[in-house]
Write a structure and sequence with these properties.
single chain, 306 residues, alpha/beta, TIM Barrel, two-stranded antiparallel sheet, 12 helices, 12 strands
Length: 306
């Protein structure tokens, strides 16, 4: 089973540079496949963080989950991605997504118009930037005519945070895979995997990566941990994108999607996601037990053993 973990900020927690580097070293030493960093406005820049993480690791893949597209010009992000590729020796998994109206409109003050069409063109520009030193693109949203060459930079894996049908279709057609969040086993198996896999096959592309993003906590008192988790995840319930993906599964709320339980229960749930068609796990490691540090450590140990 391919298992990666967040080495940077997750679930509202802030990570310092020193903590990021320590987490990256530890994740590689434990054998995790990928160390993920989100991009949130109140903490570390994801691309800079991964460039730093690359200097203290040798093997582990380094991924963004995810960089919002609207605030960044695709050529600028491509240059950053190629730079991280050069620094890391080709270990970047570039996860991008349009984010949500509450972020783009309220925090950045930008338009969130037609996010799927925006994302499709954004991916097209990125692909051109990754494969040609002379970038030429004339579209509805971007007009790019420029030189772009980063010594040592190679095209990274390109993943899109896709949950809705149109987003999954364009991701299968244009990108290397998707990163989900708050999609349970049923939503992954009955909705995400069939749509993105068919789209990739129809486009003659390889089978896509389906990275299942999940909060994970190994605990003794499951009921108490779920109560803590419900409070921690409550803000996600107001986001329409997540409301819709919850509706496609069997879980009524984010805490039901989260993998919270004993070691045996956690192992079984994670295997269920793989059985549903997820190619890998992207875990937010949480400590939700009575002793949170002990719970966090136990969760890391279980995930590393997979």
């Amino acid at each position: 089973m391919r298992v990666g973990i967040f080495i940077g900020d997750a679930s509202g927690l802030r990570t310092s540079v020193d903590e990021l580097l320590a987490n990256a070293r530890d994740a590689e030493a434990r054998g995790f496949t990928t160390g993920w960093v989100p991009h949130i406005p109140w903490s570390l820049d994801a691309m800079t963080a991964l460039a730093l993480a690359a200097t203290v690791t040798d093997r582990i893949e380094l991924g963004t989950a995810v960089v919002p597209t609207f605030p960044r010009h695709p050529m600028s992000l491509a240059q950053e991605a190629l730079t991280v590729q050069a620094v890391s020796g080709g270990r970047l998994a570039l996860g991008i997504g349009p984010s949500h109206p509450v972020v783009i409109e309220n925090m950045y003050g930008l338009s969130y118009e037609k996010p799927a069409a925006h994302t499709a063109e954004y991916v097209e520009v990125l692909r051109k930037c990754f494969t040609s030193n002379l970038v030429a693109h004339d579209g509805e949203r971007y007009s790019v005519h420029a030189m772009l060459e980063v010594p040592g930079g190679t095209p990274p894996q390109l993943l899109v945070a896709a949950l809705a049908p149109r987003m999954l279709e364009l991701t299968g057609r244009l990108a290397d895979g998707t990163i989900t969040y708050w999609a349970d086993e049923k939503a992954v198996g009955d909705h995400v995997v069939p749509l993105i896999t068919k789209s990739a096959a129809d486009a003659g592309r390889p089978a896509p990566r389906v990275v299942a993003g999940l909060p994970v906590a190994v605990v003794d008192d499951v009921d108490a941990a779920r109560e803590r988790g419900a409070k921690l995840f409550s803000t996600y319930e107001a986001i329409p994108t997540y409301q819709r993906i919850l509706g496609r599964g069997e879980s009524g709320s984010p805490v039901d999607v989260a993998v919270i339980g004993t070691e045996k229960q956690v192992r079984a749930r994670l295997q269920a996601f793989i059985d549903a068609g997820a190619t890998e796990i992207c875990a937010t490691v949480l400590g939700l037990g009575d002793d949170r540090e002990e719970s966090h450590a136990a969760t890391l140990d279980v995930l590393a053993s997979l």
